[in-house]
Amino acid sequence: MPVITEISVQKKDKNRASIFLDGVFFCGIELVTVMENRLTPGTEIEAERLSEIAAESERAEAARAALEYAAKYVKSEREIVNKLYQKGYSRAVIEYAVGRTKEYGYIDDAAFAKGYVAAHAGKYGTDKLKYDLRARGITDADITAAFEGSGAGGAAEAEVCRAIAEKYMRGKECTPENRQKLLRYLQGRGFFGDSLYGAVRAYFENNEEENIIE
To answer: 168-198: per-residue pLDDT in tens?
Structure first.
């Protein structure tokens, strides 16, 4: 039967150990897993069993990483998946980790979307908010639900756009050049159509006689 000939702490990650089987590197495993399975130099173990232990260790490690990330920063499922991919985990391991994270209630795209809209509706237009949510993997159904009852959009969005326009133009002259700059600025924040042009038109009609806004 194969024998573990060496267990050494990895230089890049002090929480993991390199396992050598019959003098050849076999796999990397978390130190806690090494201790839990009482693996020591001289331990006889089948390669298949050691592979199973390594797989179990990787799943547990990925699940812990997902939980820590989701608990520290409220993220969508896609963002957590991307984070785990960046760490080099396989698709199967990521699916396991995401599933465990959902079980603990740390991944909820519907709740994430509602929170995102509530936090940003006073800063950006609905088009940008929807674009940002889709980029984070939120479904159209969850996006629609997030806007329902949120107060965002319509008259509320027009008021937000006007307030942002006033803040941007404070201290600036009402010139054609600044009018175009204001349009581009508001478009960059996701305002279009009636909200955009209504805000710009109202601002300049109310202030161009004074020319300078205090």
So the answer is: 888 888 888 988 999 999 999 888 888 888 8
d(CA 132, CA 127): 9
Q: SS3 for 4?
A: strand
In this structure, which CATH number among 2.40.160.20, 3.30.70.60, 1.20.950.20, 1.10.10.10 belongs to the domain 4-103? 1.10.10.10
Q: Give the domain ranges of the chain.
A: 4-103, 109-147, 154-207
pTM for the whole structure = 0.72
70, 106 in Cβ contact below 8 A? yes
H, E, C per residue of 116-181: HHHHHCCCCCHHHHHHHHHHCCCCHHHHHHHHCCCCCCHHHHHHHHHHHHHHHHCCCECCHHHHHH
